[in-house]
Amino acid sequence: MTAEHVITKPVVAAVAAHAARGVAGVSRLEAGLAGLVGSVARTARQRIKGLDPAPTEGVRVRMDVGVRLEVDIVTTADDQAAAVGRAVQRAVARAVTNATGLAVVEVAVSILDIELS
To answer: What CATH number has the domain bearing residue 14?
Structure first.
């Protein structure tokens, strides 16, 4: 008998969020309006079940042929925003593939704000 593993969107989002937060120049992840509504509903469901939800704010996941992620970040003014965005793309794709074995076909990064020091 073989074991079957199911990897859900919140798990992928948590891995992606952790990876994005670890990139130099990322101040924080920022949930847009759509992400905020989804996050509140998911957190409520998990708390009802007695689970402590992993932070996933600022990450949206679509899973079809491959994994497509949207990551919303706030950068620091000390780094080039475009370079930080590319670094987030690479870090998120690598982390999700390494942690889940799933193929990441797209990581779209939106820079919502730049924090002045």
So the answer is: 3.30.70.1350
